[in-house]
Amino acid sequence: AKKFVLARQCQGFPKESDFELVEEELPPLKENEYLAEAVYLSVDPYMRGYMPRVKLNTTMYGTQVAKIVESRSLKFPVGQYVLGPFGWRTHTVVPENGPTHIGMRTFLLPDLQGLPISLALGVLGMPGNTALFGLLELCQPKAGETVVVSGAAGAVGSHAGQIAKIKGCIVIGIAGSDEKGKWLTEELGFDYFINYKTQNVEEELRKAAPQGVDCYYDNVGGEITTTVLNQMNAFGRVALSGSISSYNSIGPFKVTTPNLTIVLQQLKLEGFIVTRWNHRWMEGIQQNLQWIQQGKLKYRETVTEGFENIFKAFTDMLEGVNVGKAIVKV
Ligand code: NDP
Question: What is the complex's ipTM, to 2 decimals?
Answer without folding.
Answer: 0.99
